[in-house]
């Protein structure tokens, strides 16, 4: 992804809109942004137009709060290129959130909600470069809040993916809990969610997106994550992996339920003396790596779901990024180990749970006098199609700019 | 898979201290009660990982596995580091620092812990997560760091998946085996850490000493389905013969077969000096082991180890060994009184044995006539045993859980390995002769005493005569100062009751009764004898005679193989025969016990009625060590013990170093003089030459 293009694109397409209310999730590899853009200057009191635009029933807010209508936008930057992110923020004047309604606090007291480890690590940098303070929100809490919000409020947010078939799952918001949330960032966190704000990190693994990218870079010289993912499409992991068939001479080892194409040992064929790293196709290496990590995450997730008797496992985080093969492998792993009893589910806005959760946390503190209200339940938001970008498109990475149409009450 | 499980079941049941835990570099052996072995989780880490739930012999199910295993480590490692062997890759990891390549929680949180969810700053958040940096290429990372990062990633993952599976089936024990582990401390630590971390300390990872051989062993078992499956732990004796040179984790040169090769190899040791840290046992089947003792070699299982931090001995199958039937609680029984896992204790005994070594070598060489060949073997033995000791100092768990008894036995085994069958032969003979010469006078003296005085004198005599012990430094010094009789007399005169542990009055009451009531004599007494010479002739024989006189059958229990100057079961009949020449009681009893086959003496007074004496018998105990592990005794002894109601253990080795705390179903009397200052302090808060007379009545049944 070309960030400069991305940024300029944002700038041109949204220069007419007012941008306010930003939240950040600064992870080990990526910075995720969620920000709210109003349509025009539509700070309304009557709500009529809103109703017509949203195709959904909208009752006027109970206490005559002003309603902001607009979109939630999503963007991301590599953490190592944090300056791009700072430039972006500066250019968009995002950091002046709340100033438009005339109640801006003095500039030395501007806060931005932020989560992820980087919220601690880069707090000083933000202060120095942008003059804003990062208001740190707990990472897990944000993840869960974001996931709960998406699963309850966004229509067709969750889907299963098996054998190339994507199937949306309608979640009854009243029958959502408990579930297992697996967030695959640089590392992997597994969180048992029992309700709003009720959750526990039950497990995790260090074999995550960072491992895929890190090992992949060392092994293939790929320049970025997406290139590496792209490569894996064309690869054949049989060159590198030792399969059950390789050990048992091509016959299925059916006695213990393993087929001959089951991977017995990831990278197990690479122990051969006759081949060096240069002799392997980067495509094959990438494929093998992807399968190893996806499979492992699927397995550990299932074991944890089993442990707590959870039927639903939602996978999210930037490692997945709508990549078909990744989802397929995770699904197969869950399916295999659960003997078909559990299904892996994915979220369309997988990468932005933390940032979204941080954004939601404005509500708690009414920082800008804004409420991202519980209205989400009253106003289900349809799958967004902001501009030409359909977030849920699976095969491309044009989903960066996906946004959710939403309504925010101002006070 | 069948083979794996069969191998693991066999090892866990048949070999003592096969399993151990490994945390932060510290090994601890775990004794598994083989009646409470199942169910357990067996994790075999080969190229891939199989996770198997084992419910019993032949009852198991592969419940899980992972494709991230040893092959992944070696495969990825090869691609990333250009290492040419698995061992080299492992070796590298020991000098690595994974924080240069793994993304730690602290890296994300700017050095802070994420304490809210219990993650410390050093927790790995993402394996290889730092390698995403644009600035560094593969060549910029140290292979050491890459290897360590890989190792941690894979070990940690295996530990986690294993624990989750154990949890799923409610299994408490997880055993890890397979070539990936290879006794590699860091691998074991990482897996242990993962299991401990995820289970919050409730589960423990355990490892097997013979971990690399599960499959092979199982396959071996499968083609002799006759009888090996119901092998019991007491049938196997593990030995650690000197094999091939072992330095820096590698075996140099071929395994050493015959004695000559061993000797010349040990000579080369001199040049390499301190480099030599350890012997790796590599003996081909049929050599060394129990030496002259009968080993059915056709069924002997021999295991050959690779370079390993843990030494694996040769397993000798001795189907004639049994558990001593009079042990009150065989499962709880621990022979060793002193646990050498305390490093100070080990250091002390290391010094004792090292100092004693030159004297022992002299004796050994002399026993073989002092020839050049004997000298060469003597030197080789000294080096081999020193190497064993050095190895143990460096890695106390190298040979499994080590007690003093094992250490002393190791020395005897080492002597036998260099074909010193009986280093003290001539000394023993000389002392026996000298003692037998004064025996008639002693018996006469005893016969003039009344019953009570006689019993006390007899016990005093046993304790006094126990001073003759070539295993004790202090006593070796004494030998140079006087004759046997002088020492014996001096020693007996010094006997001052009360002894440090003094149950004599209890024993006397049992023997003689109180208030004129005569108690029933014992039916049969087992006398575990100790040293040759005065100890057995002037101490134990007169006591045996007293018991015989009271109508108690006496079984003298002696070593099967020589150990120091301990009397052996082979030598005892001659000694008894010689003593019987001077004593009618002994003669008739020995005849009744079949010890005097030619019965020449029968015609001397021709009194037929006297031949119906209770018998005096001799049995071998099945071992060749100054100590005795009562879990492994000869079937002869086990049979003889069936109707015994009194066990008398004599000497430091058998009643203090081992069995001091052993409980029996029968009455037990433990007699010894403590000839070691440290042991005296440690065991009885006493001092050197203090005496122990411990009497324990039979438990109420």
Characteristics:
heterodimer; A: 411 residues; alpha+beta; 7-stranded mixed sheet; 25% strand; globular; disordered N terminus; B: 701 residues; alpha/beta; 22 helices; 23 strands; 40% helix; 15% strand; elongated
Kindly describe this structure.
The complex is a heterodimer of chains A (411) and B (701). Chain A has 13 helices and 16 strands. Chain A has helices spanning 3-14, 48-54, 82-92, 118-121, 123-130, 139-153, 209-220, 225-233, 244-247, 282-307, 324-337, 353-365, 375-378; strands at 18-26, 30-44, 67-78, 111-115, 133-136, 158-162, 165-169, 179-184, 188-195, 198-205, 242-243, 263-265, 312-316, 343-347, 370-371, 403-410. In chain A, the strands form three sheets. A seven-stranded mixed sheet of chain A has the order 5-4-1-2-3-16-15, sandwiched between helices. In chain B, helix 6 (185-198) links the parallel strand 8 and strand 9 (204-208). Chain B is an alpha/beta fold and 701 residues long. In chain B, helix 12 (425-447) crosses helix 17. In chain B, 54% of the residues are buried. Chains A and B meet through helix 4, strand 10, helix 7, strand 12 and helix 10 of A and strand 5, helix 2, helix 4, strand 7 and helix 5 of B.
């Amino acid at each position: 992804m070309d960030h400069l293009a991305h940024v300029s694109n944002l700038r041109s397409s949204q220069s007419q809109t007012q941008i306010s209310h930003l939240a950040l999730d600064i992870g080990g590899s990526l910075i995720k942004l969620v920000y709210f853009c109003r349509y025009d200057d539509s700070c309304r009191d009557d709500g009529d137009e809103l109703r017509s635009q949203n195709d959904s029933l909208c009752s006027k807010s109970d206490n005559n709060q002003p309603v902001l209508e607009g979109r939630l936008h999503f963007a991301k930057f590599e953490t190592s290129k944090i300056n791009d992110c700072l430039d972006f923020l500066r250019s968009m004047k995002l950091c002046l959130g709340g100033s438009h309604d005339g109640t801006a606090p003095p500039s030395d007291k501007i806060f931005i909600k932020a989560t992820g480890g980087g919220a601690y690590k880069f707090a000083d940098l933000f202060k120095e470069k942008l003059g804003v303070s990062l208001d740190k929100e707990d990472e897990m809490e944000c993840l869960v809040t974001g996931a709960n919000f998406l699963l309850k409020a966004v229509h067709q947010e969750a889907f299963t993916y098996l054998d190339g078939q994507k199937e949306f799952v309608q979640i009854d918001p009243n029958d959502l809990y408990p579930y297992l949330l697996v967030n695959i960032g640089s590392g992997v966190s597994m969180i048992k969610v029992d309700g709003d704000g009720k959750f526990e990190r039950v497990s995790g693994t260090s074999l995550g997106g960072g491992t895929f990218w890190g090992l992949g870079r060392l092994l293939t010289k790929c320049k970025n994550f997406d290139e590496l993912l792209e490569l894996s499409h064309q690869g054949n992991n049989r060159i590198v992996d030792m399969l059950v068939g390789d050990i048992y001479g091509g016959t299925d080892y059916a006695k213990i339920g393993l087929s001959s194409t089951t991977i017995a040992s990831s990278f197990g064929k690479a122990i051969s003396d006759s081949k060096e790293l240069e002799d392997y196709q980067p495509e094959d290496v990438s494929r093998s790596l992807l399968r190893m990590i996806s499979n492992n995450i699927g397995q550990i997730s299932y074991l944890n779901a089993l442990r707590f008797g959870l039927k639903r496992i939602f996978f999210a985080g930037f490692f997945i990024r709508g990549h078909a093969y990744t989802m397929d492998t995770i699904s197969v792993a869950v399916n295999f180990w659960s003997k078909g009893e559990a299904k892996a589910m994915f979220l369309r806005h997988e990468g932005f749970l933390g940032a979204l959760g941080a954004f939601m946390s404005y509500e708690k503190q009414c920082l800008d006098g804004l409420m991202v209200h519980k209205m989400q339940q009253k106003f289900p938001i349809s799958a967004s199609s902001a501009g030409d970008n359909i977030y849920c498109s699976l095969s491309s990475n044009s989903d960066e700019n996906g946004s959710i149409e939403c309504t925010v009450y101002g006070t | 898979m069948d083979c794996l499980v069969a191998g693991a079941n066999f090892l866990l049941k048949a070999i003592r201290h096969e399993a151990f835990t490994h945390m932060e570099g510290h090994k601890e052996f775990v004794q598994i009660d083989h009646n409470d072995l199942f169910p357990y989780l067996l994790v075999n880490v080969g190229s891939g990982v199989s996770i198997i739930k084992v419910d019993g012999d032949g009852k198991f199910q592969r419940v899980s596995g992972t494709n991230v295993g040893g092959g992944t480590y070696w495969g990825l490692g090869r691609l990333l580091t250009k290492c040419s062997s698995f061992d080299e890759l492992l070796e590298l990891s020991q000098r690595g620092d994974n924080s240069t390549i793994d993304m730690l929680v602290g890296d994300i949180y700017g050095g802070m812990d994420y304490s809210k969810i219990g993650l410390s700053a050093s927790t790995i958040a993402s394996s290889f997560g730092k390698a995403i940096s644009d600035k560094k290429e593969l060549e910029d990372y140290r292979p050491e760091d890459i290897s360590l990062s890989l190792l941690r990633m894979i070990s940690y993952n295996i530990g986690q998946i294993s624990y989750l599976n154990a949890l799923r089936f409610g299994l408490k024990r997880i055993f890890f085996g397979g070539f990936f582990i290879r006794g590699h401390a860091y691998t074991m630590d990482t897996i242990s850490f993962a299991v401990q971390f995820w289970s919050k300390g409730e589960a423990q990872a355990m490892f097997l000493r013979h971990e690399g051989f599960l499959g092979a062993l199982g396959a071996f078992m499968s083609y002799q389905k006759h009888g090996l499956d119901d092998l019991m732990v007491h049938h196997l004796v593990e030995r650690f013969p000197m094999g091939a040179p072992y330095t820096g984790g590698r075996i140099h040169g071929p395994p050493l077969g015959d004695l000559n090769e061993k000797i010349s190899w040990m000579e080369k040791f001199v040049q390499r000096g301190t480099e030599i840290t350890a012997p790796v046992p590599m003996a081909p089947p049929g050599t060394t082991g129990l030496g002259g003792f009968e080993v059915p070699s056709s069924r002997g299982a021999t295991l050959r180890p690779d370079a390993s931090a843990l030494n694996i001995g040769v397993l000798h199958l001795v189907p004639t060994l049994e558990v001593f039937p009079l042990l009150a609680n065989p499962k709880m029984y621990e022979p060793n009184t002193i646990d050498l896992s305390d490093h100070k204790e080990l250091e002390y005994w290391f010094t004792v044995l090292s100092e004693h070594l030159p004297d022992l070598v002299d004796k050994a060489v002399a026993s073989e006539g002092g020839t050049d060949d004997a000298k060469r073997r003597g030197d080789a033995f000294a080096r081999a045993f020193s190497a064993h000791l050095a190895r143990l100092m460096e890695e106390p768990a190298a040979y499994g859980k080590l007690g003093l008894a094992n250490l002393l036995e190791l020395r005897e085994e080492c002597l036998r390995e260099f074909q010193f069958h009986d280093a003290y032969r001539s000394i023993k003979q000389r002392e026996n002769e000298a003692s037998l010469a004064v025996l008639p006078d002693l018996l006469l003296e005893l016969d003039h005493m009344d019953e009570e005085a006689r019993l006390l004198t007899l016990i005093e005599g046993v304790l006094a005569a126990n001073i003759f012990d070539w295993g004790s430094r202090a006593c070796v010094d004494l030998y140079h100062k006087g004759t046997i009789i002088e020492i014996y007399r001096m020693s007996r005169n010094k006997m001052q009751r009360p002894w440090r542990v003094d149950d004599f009055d209890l024993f006397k009451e049992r023997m003689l009764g109180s208030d004129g009531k005569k108690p029933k004599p014992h039916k049969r007494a087992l006398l575990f004898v100790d040293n040759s010479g005065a100890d057995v002739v002037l101490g134990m024989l007169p006591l045996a005679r007293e018991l015989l006189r009271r109508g108690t059958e006496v079984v003298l229990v002696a070593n099967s193989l020589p150990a120091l100057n301990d009397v052996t079961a082979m030598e005892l009949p001659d000694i008894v025969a010689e003593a019987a020449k001077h004593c009618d009681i002994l003669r008739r009893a020995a005849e009744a016990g079949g010890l005097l086959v030619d019965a020449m003496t029968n015609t001397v007074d021709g009194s037929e009625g006297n031949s119906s004496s209770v018998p005096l018998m001799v049995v071998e105990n099945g071992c060749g060590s100054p100590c005795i592990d009562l879990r492994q005794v000869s079937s002869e002894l086990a049979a003889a013990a069936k109707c015994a109601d009194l066990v008398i253990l004599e000497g430091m080795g058998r009643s203090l170093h081992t069995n001091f705390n052993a409980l029996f179903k029968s009455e037990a009397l433990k007699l010894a003089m403590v000839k070691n200052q440290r042991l005296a302090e440690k065991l009885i808060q006493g001092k050197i030459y203090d005496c122990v007379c411990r009497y324990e009545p039979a438990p109420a049944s």
